[in-house]
Amino acid sequence: MVAIKYALLTFSLLGAAAAAPASEVDYVSALVPGEGLPSPKELGLTNVFLQKRKVCRYTDVCQRTDAIACFNYLLGLNERSCSTGARPTQFCRMGGCSWIGQAENAPQAASYFRDVAHGGNVVINGCRIGSICAGYNYAGGNGNLRVTLAGN
């Protein structure tokens, strides 16, 4: 009997918590950097940037092997600068897989190709089902340069 009451109490509390409106978190103010490291505010980071994460898509997918070939190519370009605007720019195509860059929340975005490669690699490893992958992430160090991996 006690177990049933405990279960009912737990479910009612969980329901109440789920029904409560989510509060906005000010990540720029709440994040505590390690000793000697600059604050997000000192780096000019925003809440939007701190909350960005990959998005997986399972339509218009890439073969992982094709996506990896583009990753290695873009990584090999290392610190060569790449830039894009609001219109999508194709950075690489291998087989049926395209790596596409696009500025988001800014008219232009630029980054090193190695950072574009690392952003796309998150999709390769984090948005995979067997031998396919697709989705988008942001170039390492630049939350305004969206890197999309998609089949064509």
UniProtKB/TrEMBL annotation:
<keyword id="KW-0732">Signal</keyword>
<protein>
    <recommendedName>
        <fullName>Ecp2 effector protein domain-containing protein</fullName>
    </recommendedName>
</protein>
<feature type="signal peptide">
    <location>
        <begin position="1"/>
        <end position="19"/>
    </location>
</feature>
